[in-house]
Amino acid sequence: MAVNPEETDLNKKHIVTLNEKEPLAISTKDLHVYYGKFEAIKGVSLEFEKNKITSLIGPSGSAKSTYLRSLNRMNDEISSAKVTGEILYKNVNINDPEVDVYTTRKQIGMVFQSPNPFSKSIYENIAFGLKRHGVKGKETLDKAVETSLKQAALWDQVKDKLNQSALALSGGQQQRLCIARAIALKPEILLLDEPASALDPISTSQVEETLIELKENYTIIIVTHNMQQASRISDRTAFFYLGHVLEYDETRKIFTNPTIQATEDYVSGHYG
After folding, report:
1. How far out from the chain centre does Cα 136 lie?
2. Strand pairing partners for 221?
3. Most buried residue among 79, 80, 82, 247 by CB atoms closer than 10 A?
4. Coil, strand, or helix at residue 15?
5. Per residue in 192-212, pLDDT tens?
6. What integer is the mean pLDDT of 248-252?
7. Spatial separation of the C-alpha atoms in residues 119 and 170, rounded to whole Å
8. From CA 234, how far away is CA 54, in angstroms rounded?
9. CA torsion through residues 260, 189, 68, 45, sign
């Protein structure tokens, strides 16, 4: 697939603006991300509806993960990174350096590609972040741990071994524990970067089912290379290419009737 991004009238012609009546969870306006002199994200403007799952798809090197990391300012951790443009959350530009990044990350949680539980007990994996944010009292912590594990569809499997090491869990269980750890802080938005790429099909299915259930209470934005996964779980899909977004629409339309040939080539497996 050979695409000249400049010929696609990016972020204008092929991106459908959401209905103004739809409540938005977060949006970006003319977002650019630079690593030194290299421009990874090139003026992306997207809106994300509340309580929906949005998939970010595209070939390797299209900067999907870079964009995702921008939404809760994870790129701040990279010394060479510079982010310009607006990231609007609750009518505040959270890309403003005066906005507290740790408060932002409490509201916009993140789950990474590989399961990364702490080398602690299952219970402490959930309680650790809560304690750091000032949650006290055993009864309060116990309830939060149970609620989070139930929301991540893991409670029934671990309720009798909460004091055992989280590292003893299977890969799929560890990833759902990481989801539980993220939602324990009650974020409004959950970002996931290839959360099932290291999992077997059964564990992948369990994670997908968990995300579908979670969207009742959370807005979910997920990066995935798995086209079947994107089509199964997401309400909307954005197609990234070379740091641009070529198309953004309802998932059904992206996979059955995309506007541009580049999108059709990618989702049908004819990319290359």
Report:
1. 29
2. 54, 191
3. 247
4. strand
5. 999 888 888 988 898 899 999
6. 97
7. 14
8. 5
9. positive
Token readout for 79 is 């010394």
pLDDT exceeds cutoff 60 at 247: yes
Mean pLDDT of all residues in 138-142: 95
Amino acid at 123: Y
| CA dist., res. 64 & res. 32, Å (int) | 13
Going along the chain, which residue ranges are E strands? 24-35, 38-49, 53-57, 81-89, 92-93, 108-111, 189-193, 219-223, 236-241, 244-250
Please tell me what DSSP assigns to residue 74. G
pLDDT at position 15, please?
A: 53
Is pLDDT above 70 for 60?
yes
Rounded Cα distance, 23 and 268, in Å: 32
Q: How far is the C-alpha of 44 from the C-alpha of 21, rounded, in Å?
A: 22
- Cα separation, 75 vs 69, in Å, equals 6
- With pLDDT > 90 as the criterion, what percentage of the chain qualifies? 78
C-alpha angle 82-86-92 in degrees, rounded to nearest 5: 125
Structure tokens at 214: 């979670």
CB 228 within 8 A of CB 196: no
**Helix count (H) and strand count (E) of the chain?**
10, 10
Predicted pLDDT of residue 13: 44
| Interior/surface letters 128-144, b for 16+ CB within 10 angstroms, e for the rest | ebbeeeeeeeeeebeeb
Residue 69 structure tokens: 């990391």
